[in-house]
């Protein structure tokens, strides 16, 4: 089992043996069979250990003794201790995932959490840039010194080319910042203008990119990357100032820095992803295509962008229609 946090580890060790074994088997299933990331497995394990600790305190000694009353009692306790709606929704989802697996593994006679309701997490409409603001941002490296580059103009050029390639990729493809930083040279098909992205859960997808990103990538690969590359570069597409793979924290700092310098609203790589999705829908792309491009496993995750577009349509209607 991936090592949980210290507090969770202590609770895990204090569980009855049958419950402790169930936690370990569930974690192995998530990691080995479903291909979940170490971070995701830790989150599930933390929720599950909390649930089983609560169940043990209610007299349960093994998973088969779990029932809907115990699950509801656990969530109620979380609510009384101030857990946010989003946290309650996530914990209920963890309980349902475990219950379904435990039933299939014959640890539970029935899927006891199938009927477990959870509060709907309040989802804020994402902040997005206008198309002209997004254009200003991706073109900003031509007007500002890169944050991690030396003061000399010639030495700063490779970092500027990398920053432009990073911004064009983030906005031009809508990939997550971790996905962009995880790209290797072999993931870029310059002939077809497609990047191969390894997303959440190990799911792979091909994402097209446009002419501006093509030019930015070509400049970076021809003139920028060779100047920064070193022994630590490996096959990484985007490099940091010391030649290693660009990390997401640095990428976030790059995006925020250029946005501030350009006088734009505060924006992160995820904000560029929101902007790309919204502009695609406003330009006529269908929801299923946007879902595939973004790598969402559920269409519900993509539908939030239709809310953004609807709000903009409503604003335009109020402004322009004589009977609004």
Task: Offer a few descriptive terms.
3 strands, 324 residues, hpI Integrase, Chain A, mainly alpha, 13 helices, 3-stranded antiparallel beta sheet
Helical fraction equals 55-70%
Q: Mind describing the biggest β-sheet? A: 3 strands, antiparallel
Indicate how many domains the architecture comprises: 2
- Main structural class: mainly alpha
Count of extended strands: 3
Shape: elongated
Order of helices and strands: HHHHHHHHEEEHHHHH
Rg, Å, rounded? 24 Å
Strand order of the largest sheet: 1-2-3
What is the name of the CATH superfamily of the largest domain?
A: Intergrase catalytic core
The gist of it:
With 324 residues, the protein is mainly alpha-helical. Helices cover 58% and strands 4% of the residues.
